[in-house]
Design brief:
With 209 residues, the protein is α/β, with parallel strands linked by helices. Helices cover 27% and strands 30% of the residues. Strands 5-4-3-6-7-8-9 form a 7-stranded mixed beta sheet. A two-stranded antiparallel sheet has the order 1-2. The longest helix is centred in the middle third of the chain and has 13 residues, at 106-118. The protein is globular, with a radius of gyration of 16 Å. The mean pLDDT is 96. It binds S-adenosyl-L-homocysteine.
Length: 209
């Protein structure tokens, strides 16, 4: 188990991701800032860590694979659904120009904003809202990364992808969640491949108001 930020970055590096900027992003973002203070000792382990509201911040190597597949261009714009404590938000912010992130729990969104400030991130914006609707005001996005398992791919997220844009999303199928990569080509968001099975918290469907 890695015991330092550098150790965690090396572990990510061993995964031979396509995008070598991701290891650099892991080196530059201290996960300790993005876990609750009582769990600081576990910040550099490659495991999910509990955060308030019965949620978790995802396993670092899984985040690495997902943002690798999202392949967000340096000048591009990314949407994250499920901010949690903001760790993946911070990594995405290192990889592209603008990150927009949606979180349904106000207290998590507020803590994520403060964590991002503490990490010196200035190009990420967090809002409280329902990820099923995406964030149309800032669309289209070059990459959309969903951090909670959906029962199906939300139409709004398909629509808010730019042409050539990539959507990485876990979908609940039977007992497992399968993380899929979709790419928008000729105006249609198409399934490209299964990245990995994994476990996520559910992408909650708000009751209609
Ligand atoms: N990206 C985070 C993962 C946090 S866990 C990380 O870096 O670790 C997933 C988050 O999705 C939780 O905080 C949960 O509250 C949020 N979530 C669940 N359903 C949602 C919805 N419909 N809209 C927005 N956020 C949602």
């Amino acid at each position: 188990m890695p015991r330092s930020q550098e150790g965690l970055a090396r572990l990510i590096d061993r995964d031979r991701l396509d995008d070598d900027r991701i290891t650099a992003a892991f080196r530059s973002i201290d996960r300790k800032v993005f876990v609750p203070s009582e769990f600081r000792a576990r910040a550099y382990e490659d495991r999910p860590v509990g955060i308030p509201a019965q949620q978790t911040t995802s396993q670092p190597s899984l985040i690495a694979r997902m943002i690798d597949a999202a392949r967000v261009p340096p000048g591009g714009r990314a949407l994250e659904v499920g901010t949690g404590y903001g760790f993946q938000t911070a990594l995405l912010a290192r990889l592209c120009r603008e990150v927009y992130s949606i979180e349904r729990h106000p207290e998590l969104a507020a803590q994520a904003e403060s964590n991002l400030r503490a990490a010196g991130i200035t190009n990420a914006t967090v809002t409280v809202g329902d990820g099923w609707a995406g964030w149309p005001e800032h669309a289209p996005y070059d990459a959309i990364v969903v951090s909670a398992a959906a029962s199906e791919v939300p139409d709004a997220l398909r629509d808010q992808l730019a042409e050539g844009g990539r959507l990485v999303i876990p979908v609940t199928e039977g007992a497992s969640d399968n993380v899929y990569l979709f790419v928008k080509t000729d105006g249609a968001t198409r399934l490209v491949r299964l990245l990995t099975p994994a476990r996520f918290v559910p992408l909650v469907k708000e009751p209609p108001s």
